[in-house]
Write a structure and sequence with these properties.
Elements: H1 4-18, E1 23-28, H2 38-45, E2 52-56, E3 59-64, E4 68-73, E5 78-84, E6 87-92, E7 106-112, E8 117-122, E9 128-133, H3 134-142, H4 155-162, H5 169-174, H6 184-194, H7 207-226, E10 268-272, E11 275-279
Antiparallel strand pairs: 1-7, 2-3, 3-4, 4-9, 5-6, 5-8, 7-8, 10-11
Helix pairs in contact: 1-7, 4-7, 6-7
Bound molecules: zinc ion.
Length: 285
């Protein structure tokens, strides 16, 4: 599933390709992916153009003229792929491969006036596209918690989020209404870097542990964005479906392997907050 760094990578990639290009055609072959009336959805977009692309958490916000917005969420298996001859920008779920377009999962296809295309592919069809006005866009934004990339993500604000809660740390980090954009991979990496067990309850954390978690959240998410995420390569010739952060994973997916830090214990994997959770029993307290 694409997480914040993967969605940010798509955002930056598309921003360089599709802004201010006139949409000359829009094909929708799966109505259920459109959260508006499909006919009016198409009518409002054809002839229109995207002025900018924003993001909150994992939700992409395509800005249209006259304070209209197209929200796109990839959910589990959505892909957004821009293609113009050999030029390709792709992001989202890592299957199907992006070489063959359109394919049977290309449910929505935008064509721009330079004959470039933007495909929305979705294997399991949990993703969605929705046209909204400014007020509804703001409601969608407000449903998201603070992002580690926000300048308001200060130690003071992070401490305020932790205070008074007793939840398990891993569940807290994954709760998008509290902190927006940390998914399973990055939650494990953050806990490892902060040397805190993901199974700890928030009310047992020391001030120093909270500070380390805050710092690790900022560091890991920034590094993952710099490396264009973990789960997907964004260019055709990149290394077969992995973003560059895959090489920096310290615990995620390393169960039963020697810890890279202490080089003594093996990384353990348990189920926590409903998710596979990786940690070093020696390095994390
Ligand atoms: Zn260790």
């Amino acid at each position: 599933m694409p997480e914040l760094p993967e969605v940010e990578t798509i955002r930056l990639g598309l921003q360089a390709k599709i802004l201010n290009k006139k949409i000359v055609d829009l094909k929708v072959s799966k109505d259920k992916l459109i959260k508006n009336n499909t006919k009016s959805f198409i009518e409002k977009l054809v002839g229109n153009k995207f002025l900018d692309i924003d993001r909150v958490g994992k939700l992409l916000i395509f800005v249209l003229p006259e304070e209209k917005y197209l929200l796109i969420h990839l959910k589990m298996t959505g892909q957004l792929i821009y293609s113009k001859e050999d030029d390709l920008v792709a992001g989202g779920h890592n299957w199907p491969k992006v070489d063959d377009l359109p394919n049977k999962y290309s449910h929505i296809i935008f064509t721009f006036d330079d004959n470039s295309k933007l495909f929305f592919n979705d294997l399991r069809q949990f993703g969605y596209l929705k046209l909204v006005n400014k007020a509804d866009k703001q409601k969608a934004v407000d449903r998201h918690g603070l992002q580690p990339t926000d300048k308001e993500f200060t130690l003071k604000n992070f401490k305020a989020l932790v205070k008074g809660r007793r939840a398990v740390l891993k569940a807290f980090l994954l709760n998008q209404q509290i902190i927006s954009g940390i998914g399973n991979i990055y939650a494990d990496e953050i806990c490892f870097r902060a040397k805190v067990m993901p199974s700890r309850h928030l009310d047992t954390l020391s001030q120093d542990e909270i500070r380390r978690l805050w710092q690790a959240s900022k560091y890991i998410i920034k590094k993952a964005i710099d490396k264009k995420g973990t789960t997907f390569s964004d260019y055709r010739n990149a290394d077969g479906g992995r973003g560059g952060f895959a090489d920096f994973l310290k615990v995620y997916g390393r169960q039963d392997k020697k810890c890279l830090n202490c080089k003594k214990s093996n990384i353990k994997k348990i189920k926590l907050a409903g998710r596979g959770t990786h940690f070093c029993p020696s390095c994390q307290k």
